[in-house]
Design goal:
Blueprint lengths: L4 H25 L3 H6 L6 H12 L2 H14 L14 H15 L5 H9 L3 H36 L8 H53 L2 H7 L22 H10 L4 H17 L6 H8 L3 H33 L1 H6 L9 H9 L4 H37 L5 H23 L5 H25 L5 H21 L9 H17 L6 H11 L6 H10 L9 H26 L3 H21 L14
């Protein structure tokens, strides 16, 4: 593609600015491990929230969402529950507060806080590091695939005559450039550049939505999509028939395994609720929570993510989808059985964005890739350097030694993640494995660690071992089953390992459990520990907020879903449904203000500080 000189200037100016910020901040970031990984706990909550939103605004995920909306219409709003996206609601309502009260730096360090220094705790520490590193590698490969496909369409140089090789080369080049600024700047670099990237993306998203509304009327759209495409509600079976429009879309729906949409949605809700209650995986999301100044700011940061991310992102997704539906259909039909739906986003951008705006959008999506990639890379050294090297190998090294090791670990993981990405061609395949299989193996142990006092380090270890092993093996044993339907098998294996491992060994040290309960103050099955603590502090009260928290979670999920659907209804110009979603958003916002925001506490009482 031959880009206009203005587009090229915008792209290169942005990339230079991002890398420059990373090096500019590197002096401050390299002061200590605390500054490198947590920004010294001095970053304002709203900046962390915008940064987290920007980090989720990744190019691979955006390409995936455009393909989902194209094929599944408004029902695609539910499909990101695969992650699950509503984990941000659980974080906002109570889990960010609980997590930030711990005062630790990483998820593995949190394990020591929860289980102590026993052998079981040490085994748990190692297994959570292994999971975190697998998670990092999966997301690095995911990002590499997406950026390669994107850059090969838009950047003007043909690096290879073979299309797939061209994608690989572009992926390697952009990955290397991104690594420069994140390795140097740490968390401070990530946050500052992501805030800048967010505002670039928001401008581009609004422009794309406006262009789509100008180019495609509701009447035109109605003629090129199946009936029920614009209906957010569903029955047991998916009623979308593309036979006379794009037959390959029907085949894609069948290949995804989501034809029985009611069963699929129930699995999303079941899996998503358990995974959300388990808390964030040990990745960039957890790092943002731990970087907040206070527990209340951690909760507000998680709330901001829902507000600032969803509306602009879905303006972009809906705008590009509508343009592709109206104008890309003949080309897709010409591809026959070999349709690559993940190329819908590049097509719509290439053909309908004016000079300048195209450069801004390309820069924004490159920014989105850099954000997610940077945040993911930042997680790897946090675990290997802080939780392995510092704790077990060289605990008395100078701070700069730890930071230099962080540089090296980041580079190594980028290389390994890139190599994995060379062997995977489909974004959908790796997304489904990460969120259904790998996270399925994470769920049971990390659910129980918050809510059951008798759950110990050995239980955590064996639950995670069973979960990770089954995440690797079960999809191979059942290759014809859609990955999400293997979640119950993986979860049950992990749950058995967790419960049996705990009950066959001694409880964790009582002092450790009391300290954890006193600082975090979770609800759940903690009565024996509460009673022990009450003998020392008779005025201490148990957490009685379970009912209120669960009510707020339900309201929050409705709120988040309405925020997601509203920009789509706006772009397709179904204004009656758009205004209904605005009313739902307003009602839910008021309820959350009264029943959540006004009742936030850093700690249950002053003695806890």
């Amino acid at each position: 593609m031959n880009l206009n000189w203005l587009d090229i200037a915008v792209i290169f100016t942005y990339i230079a600015a991002s890398i420059g910020i990373g090096f500019w901040i590197s002096k401050r970031a390299s002061q200590s491990m605390d500054h490198y990984f947590l920004g010294g706990n001095k970053i304002p909550w709203y900046m962390l929230g915008i940064s987290n939103a920007s980090g989720m605004f990744d190019i691979s995920g955006t390409m995936w969402m455009v393909y989902l909306l194209f094929i599944y219409g408004l029902k695609s709003v539910w499909i990101p529950w695969l992650w699950p996206v509503f984990n941000q609601i659980f974080l906002m309502i109570f889990l960010s507060v609980w997590l930030r009260r711990s005062g630790v730096m990483t998820g593995a360090e949190w394990i020591k806080f929860r289980f102590g220094d026993t052998r079981g705790a040490m085994l748990s520490h190692f297994i959570v590091v292994i999971f975190a590193l697998l998670n990092v590698l999966g997301f690095l490969a995911y990002g590499f695939i997406g950026i390669g496909k994107f850059a090969a369409v838009f950047l003007p140089w043909q690096l290879s005559s073979d299309a797939h090789t061209n994608e690989i080369l572009y992926g390697i080049i952009i990955t290397a450039l991104t690594t420069l600024y994140v390795v140097k700047g740490g968390m401070l670099s990530v946050v500052f550049t992501e805030v800048m990237q967010f505002f670039i993306m928001t401008i581009a998203c609004i422009a794309v939505g406006v262009i789509a509304m100008q180019q495609v009327s509701p009447e035109i759209l109605a003629k090129i999509v199946p009936s029920d495409w614009d209906n957010i509600f569903f029955t047991w079976k998916l009623h979308l028939d593309w036979s006379n429009i794009l037959p390959a879309a029907n085949e894609k729906i069948a290949a995804d395994g989501w034809t029985l949409f009611g069963a699929f949605w129930m699995m999303l809700l079941f899996k998503g609720t358990l995974q959300s209650m388990a808390g964030p995986a040990p990745n960039y999301d957890m790092q943002r929570v731990l970087s907040a100044k206070t527990p209340i700011e951690a909760a507000k940061m998680s709330g901001v993510v829902n507000i600032v991310l969803l509306f602009p992102r879905y303006l972009l997704v809906a705008g590009l989808t509508v343009l592709a539906l109206a104008f890309f259909m003949p080309e897709l039909n010409k591809m026959g059985q070999n349709v690559d739906f993940e190329r819908i986003l590049p097509f719509a951008m290439k053909n309908f964005m004016p000079a300048g705006l195209l450069g801004l959008l390309i820069a924004g999506l490159l920014a989105a890739f850099m954000s997610t990639f940077a945040a993911t890379v930042n997680a790897a050294p946090a675990y290997l350097v802080n939780d392995i090297y510092k704790r077990f190998i060289n605990p008395d090294a100078a701070q700069k030694v730890y930071v230099y090791w962080s540089y090296a670990i980041s580079i190594i993981f980028v290389i390994i993640g890139t190599l994995i990405g060379l062997y995977i061609t489909s974004l959908n395949d790796i997304i489904q494995w990460i969120v259904a299989a790998l996270y399925g193996g994470y769920t049971a142990s990390n659910f129980l660690k918050w809510y059951w006092w008798r759950f110990n380090g050995y239980g955590y270890f064996w639950g995670m071992v069973g979960g990770i092993a089954s995440a690797m093996i079960v999809p191979i044993i059942f290759p014809d089953i859609t990955v999400i339907y293997t979640f119950p098998i993986i979860f049950i294996i992990s749950l058995l390992g967790s419960v049996i491992g705990s009950l066959m060994t001694k409880p964790d040290d009582e002092a450790v459990l009391i300290n954890f309960y006193k600082k975090v103050r979770p609800w759940g099955f903690w009565k024996p520990i509460h009673n022990k603590l009450a003998t020392q502090e008779p005025n201490i009260q148990p957490n009685k907020d379970f009912g209120r928290d669960m009510f707020n979670v339900i309201v929050g999920i409705i709120w988040q879903t309405a925020i997601t659907a509203s920009p789509i209804f706006l772009v397709i110009q179904e204004f009656d449904k758009f205004f209904i979603t605005l009313v739902v958003i307003a009602i839910c916002t008021w309820i959350l203000k009264v029943n959540w925001y006004d009742k936030l506490q850093d700690y249950p009482d002053d003695k806890m500080k």
